[in-house]
Each structure stands twice: as structure tokens, then as C-alpha cells.
Specification:
Length: 323
């Protein structure tokens, strides 16, 4: 019987639990032992390993977060933290590890692979900022949550003809904001990838008002050099509208995974198990046109930044705006 470990690293995302369940079930069904490492890379250092049994994961597929916890471990990037991790893996007789995380976690995984641990990475972050894959685990649900929340906010704002400014998560990647803006038909969107000035937002909103819109919506991504409050003040000053603003925050990261994320979770888990079982290592999983594939982690890490300008253009068409 072989031991296959799994850990989550970085920000949690929806679908992690579904993936853990599918991985544990596959291991047990094939007579192998599934081990959970608690709190990501930090758990490797602190020697937090647990046996994962089918009964422990029976009812977790529809729950957000991760039952084995996660962390952003600074210590793992130090030589001593890294050596402690290798030592603990050896102590538990584990040489195969599945890592769920984002780009930082992939870099850690590549180091483990170079040091003889068999690793498979599963792209897991709401940000969708791993550009070698169409989708990361959690992204679809994060957008779904953002859309649902904004639909609700819009109902109350439009009852009193107020404008609303919403900032969405994504770090340096504007995908959550872009997809959400298109789906809800935002009146203006400001993304980390595009140099949108506050005056552009004001003129977008002004155009929507001229066309009869009473409750315009502005969507902003993270990592801009101005805040929702700056935009709120500018709209109030130049257009005289009553405005409310909010950073939507962690509601985007919690909750039950969407069907797409559950599908990805299961497919990624099975592929990771199969690769490890074939003795393969150093691969990142991805999805291309709904089909799961694997590529070397180094290649995944070097994928050029992708920006869906075509989706932004569709929003411009929807609003008949010049880009
Ligand atoms: O990477 C996922 C993410 O939710 C980002 O969108 C956000 O900027 C960040 O994590 C927040 O990180 P933390 O929960 O560690 O504060």
C-alpha cells in the first residue's frame, strides 16, 4: 500500500473539499492510503499529518473552504523550513503529494519535485490567475457568488435610484470583475489590466444616465490605484447622484461550489491520483475546452499573462461604448 498525501495552500477556494473527497475516495478504492497535511506547507513543517478515511469526507463536497485547512507559509520558503518539510515527509514514508493552490504554491511544489518528492499541482484559486488553464478551481463559484450578491444589492439600490460601486477580489487579475461586469451588464468596469481613469468611469456612468438608467453599477477589480470611495466621491461630485459603495470581500470565496467547480474537482482528483500511481511527478493539471490535461509545473509557471479583451469588448458592445 502506497501513501498519497494531499494539502491545500494559499487562499482557500470552493471545490477544494470536493477535490479532497474525490482524491480520498479514489485512493481508498484502489487500495492506497490517503494522508491529509493540515495547514498547507506549514503543516509539512509542523508535522501535521492525518489519515483521511472515506467516512471523514462523506459529506464535504458541497462545502466551501477546506477541511484540511490552508495557510500562506513564509517559513516554507526558508532553507530550514524546507528541510523540515522534507524530513517530515520522509518520516511518514510519503513521497507523493497533491498540492491544491495558486502560483506561489506551484513554486513550492516545483522545489519539492526537484528534491525527489513526487508532486502533482491542482490549480485552485478564485482569482483565475494561472494562465495556462482555462479555469482554476473556485473561479466559477466566486463569479457566481459575486453576481448573486450584486443582483441583490441592485434590487435595493434601484428602489431608491442610487448608483453603486462594487470592488471585487482577484489580486492582480481582473477576471472576477470582468466576468461579473459582463454578466450583470455593468455600466462601467475598471480592471487591473486596463488603464481606466476615474474620469472614464464618471463619463460611462453619465452616458448610462442620459440613456435613462436610474441605478448605474460600477465594478472595480482589486489592485487599482484608487478606491471605491474615490469613485463614489467623483460620481457624487460630477453627476450629483446618490452613491453607495462596497468591497464585496470574502462572500466571494465561501459557499457551495458550482457544478463546474465540482466537476473540475472530481476530474482533477482522479487525474492526480492516476499520475501518481503511474509514478509521474512535476505536473500541473489544467482544463482546456472542458478537457483536463497536465503540463510540467515549470511550463505552467511561465505561461504568459492572458487577458480576455474579447469579453471586455462584448461589454462595450452591450453598452454601445467606444473602447
Ligand atoms: O488569492 C485569493 C484571494 O481571495 C485574493 O482574491 C485576495 O486578494 C486574497 O486572496 C486575500 O487574501 P487573504 O485571505 O490571505 O487576506
Amino acid at each position: 500500500m502506497k501513501k498519497y498525501a494531499i494539502l491545500c495552500s494559499g487562499g482557500d477556494c470552493q471545490g477544494m473539499n470536493a477535490c479532497i473527497k474525490a482524491f480520498v475516495n479514489t485512493c481508498n478504492a484502489h487500495g492506497q492510503k490517503a494522508i491529509g497535511v493540515l495547514r498547507g506547507f506549514q503543516g509539512l513543517i509542523d508535522n501535521e499529518f492525518i489519515d483521511l478515511k472515506d467516512e471523514m469526507v462523506e459529506n464535504i463536497a458541497n462545502i466551501g473552504g477546506t477541511i484540511i485547512k490552508t495557510s500562506r507559509s513564509e517559513e516554507f520558503t526558508t532553507p530550514s523550513g524546507f528541510q523540515k518539510s522534507l524530513k517530515n515527509l520522509k518520516k511518514h514514508n510519503i513521497d507523493s503529494l497533491v498540492i491544491l493552490g495558486g502560483d506561489g504554491s506551484f513554486r513550492g511544489a516545483a522545489e519539492l519535485h526537484k528534491n525527489g518528492i513526487k508532486v502533482i499541482c491542482i490549480p485552485s484559486t478564485i482569482d483565475n490567475d494561472l494562465f495556462y488553464t482555462d479555469n482554476t478551481l473556485g473561479f466559477d463559484t466566486a463569479v457566481m457568488n459575486a453576481v448573486a450578491a450584486i443582483d441583490n444589492i441592485k434590487q435595493t439600490m434601484s428602489s431608491t435610484d442610487k448608483a453603486m460601486i462594487i470592488e471585487l477580489m482577484g489580486r492582480n487579475c481582473g477576471d472576477i470583475a470582468l466576468y461579473t461586469a459582463l454578466v450583470i451588464g455593468a455600466d462601467s468596469v475598471a480592471l487591473a489590466e486596463v488603464d481606466t481613469k476615474i474620469k472614464n468611469i464618471v463619463s460611462d456612468v453619465s452616458l448610462s444616465i442620459e440613456r435613462g438608467c436610474k441605478s448605474p453599477v460600477v465594478i472595480m477589480s482589486e489592485a487599482l490605484d484608487y478606491s471605491v470611495k474615490d469613485v463614489e466621491k467623483a460620481i457624487q461630485k460630477h453627476l450629483g447622484l446618490e452613491v453607495r459603495s462596497s468591497e464585496l470581500g470574502y462572500i466571494q470565496r465561501g459557499g457551495a461550489p458550482s457544478l463546474l467547480d465540482r466537476m473540475l474537482a472530481v476530474e482533477f482528483a482522479i487525474r492526480a491520483f492516476m499520475l501518481l500511481n503511474e509514478g509521474k511527478s512535476g505536473f500541473a493539471l489544467g482544463v482546456d475546452d472542458n478537457f483536463v490535461f497536465d503540463i510540467p509545473i515549470e511550463e505552467a509557471n511561465q505561461a504568459p499573462k492572458r487577458f480576455r479583451k474579447d469579453l471586455l469588448n462584448k461589454l462595450y458592445i452591450l453598452k454601445n461604448r467606444v473602447n
